[in-house]
Amino acid sequence: MSAPITGVMCEKISQSAVEGIEATVLRTVERKPCGPSDLRIRVKAASINFPELLMMQNKYQYKPKLPFVLCTEGSGVVSEVGSDVKSYKVGDKVCFATMSGCAVEEVVLDAKTCFPMPNGLSFSQGAGFHMGYTTGYHALVHRGKLQPGEWLLVTGAGGGMGLMAVELGKALGAKVIAAASSDDKLEACKKVGADYVVNYSKEDMKEAVGKITNGAFCDVIYDPVGGKIFDQCVRCVAVRGYARLLVIGFASGTIPKFPVNMALIKGFDLVGVRMGGQMAFQPELADEMLQELLKLANQGKLKPYVCAEYPMEKYKEAFTLMEQKKVVGKCCITFNNDAQSKL
User: Would you call the peptide bond into 4 cis, given omega within 30 degrees of 0 as the criterion?
Assistant: First the structure.
């Protein structure tokens, strides 16, 4: 094997995200052998997601053993193919997701954990494809039963999870309302297909949504924010009943207390969304979901919005952008010098 490779490492648990970012380091990582069912991949980009900040603080449900390589999704070019692998060849562009870490110059992964990069995407867009769209699909299709023509409200719509849910909801035929905390984030939502936008830092969300829907409110609500925004979501469920309020996460840092009587009064379902855990029990759903997403992407209906890229040497700036809640869509760390997004 050639020289060792470099990765972005978390070596200790920190008390805050700011402290955690400062404590991360670039370290030499030992190269792994490529087994019969594996692919060796020259990494071009790794996407940053909110869970990385939680992992630095040991607050995420998955708790990797120290030290660990950061980032859980990436993209790159196949440089070696295991003897049993027939579906890939050297030079193929691939995307991948793994809890073993993607922010490193090279990974060796089972070929089954990889998928071909959709046509027309940059490496950074490919790196940001998996988590947002698979979470969105599982939430909107499997759990939310979203139907064409229904009203869909997405909160935190400027972040990676939210923006991709907006785009996916539109591709599935919904009437999409994107809600976020700033006008620049809402401009990005318009670019990916939002029919209406609400700035909940400036206006009451219930009042705005009621006006947009002529008092019907929303059939499906996708909430990755939690906290006070979740409380407002409860007030935005469809008045005719049968709405689905999807619990995606708590990016606000506050887990809300749900008034159970409201589900009775308004006749709606509170639906927890646990994409990764559920796919472990139903792997057939994961395969079907990925094929549907790749079909939409290759039709040009899905293209991750990347707001910023940072070379490996400036990785702390990328994580800081996430910690400061300034990421619109996706932010990526690039490797091997030549990953450029089509922004």
Answer: no
